[in-house]
Amino acid sequence: MRDPAPWQKKYDTMVVLACVFGLLSQYLFVEARAGLSVLLFVSAFYGLFFYAVKGRIGGFEKWRGQFSSAWTLFVPIGLLTLTYSLFANDVFRVLNGFVLFALIISQTVLLTKSSALPWYRGRFYRELLFLSIIKPFSYVTVPFSLIGSRLKDNERGDAKHAAVKKAIIGLLLAAPLLIVVITLLASADSIFQSWLNKIPELFRLRTAGDLFGRGLYGGVIALYAFCYIWVLLFRKTNVESKDPTLSPSPGPASVRERMMLDPVTAGTFLISINAVYLLFVSIQFSYLFGAAGGMLPDGSAYAEYARRGFVELVLVSVINVCLLLVGLHRIRRAGRGGELVRKLSLTSLIFCTLVMLISAYSRLSLYEEAYGYTQTRLLVHGFMIYLTVLCVVAVIRIWKERFSLAKVYIGVSIAAYALMNYINIDARIADKNIERFEQTGIIDIAYLSTLSLDAAPAMYKLEKKHPELDGIGDSVADWRSEASSYREWQSWSLAIQRAK
Question: What is the dihedral of CA 368, 373, 378, 381, to 10 degrees?
């Protein structure tokens, strides 16, 4: 029998490695909390990926910065992967799974040039969905075809392969007898039986259903990993991939031109919006400097006024960011005067938005001082800071046409999300509420007991200092019990270790 070609050997090895990856995946995650296992899982995937695409990374770069951007994604991917070994916040543990999937897909597509579109355009992300979710299904039969072709080659093989085939038949015939003999020996010798009992414990198997479930889980992971990488290897991108947003503006009868807003209409709209915002902002300045109390209706308290409305202000700020994007990309260009009006209107819009965000931030801080700190409130704080950064960046884009807003927004978004993971939000909530308790004597133990193990160290200190607090003992006991329940090494994380 002739030796298979090098490419065929590589594809056969890919099938084997994908199966190993699937087996590793079920061992890491089935009946085990995600922890150190995530780092091993992601590392194993990259090992499979780089083996498969070896020799296909690099070369001609259609869009400048594609490869450098792809390699840079290792920073947020690594940081988010490590969060499972450092923190225990349940919200981010769920979200990070989706974000890691999106970042890894984006990086692998960029490294293999599987998309001919620039990464900072919306069409690129639509193509990512197609490549990662839909296209792999068209290659589901490929690994089975590769295995089938290899078996056929072996059937036509030499005496060595014939001997292997005979040995396999012998094992199959011996299997029923082995089951009977092993059962009898186990009944006769308790030590032998104890050794046999350790075999399923080694693989964390209790029943035949466990074996089936783990096999199915590992098989699905292995099949998807192989098919997705196969998509990257044999993805045929269209040679013609012009991005209409990068090409010269088409004629006035085109769809794009018809969707553009008239500059006069848009200018009037922005000016009227800004007029309302400027009036509102003047009130916010009064509020920020404490002079708004005299403008309140009878029966209204300034403290209560100052603590309300932060949600509404954040929503308005989000609307303003959307208006900004429309103003940057969907207003037909006019003469120098029209352009100046557009830019000044958008700048005024950003200025008003920044004042609203500062006001909302201050209101929320006062609200937290009065009613305590929660996960939602701290996340809103972070979101307001994020919007502030986007607004500052937008000012540069308004006055500098060639500045790529999409690139910076995507980079800032990834960095902001990674940073929110690393501020350890549950621990911060516990610390802030304990500080508030020391000042006011008010604390919500029932809410704090719902936090993750990240909050446990701070609550242990609180119990030691104030054991008389109602419910603190039960909460601490629950945290210690939860931390002790994670015995598998795959579930190891710093948060669990600190809570034990």
Answer: 10
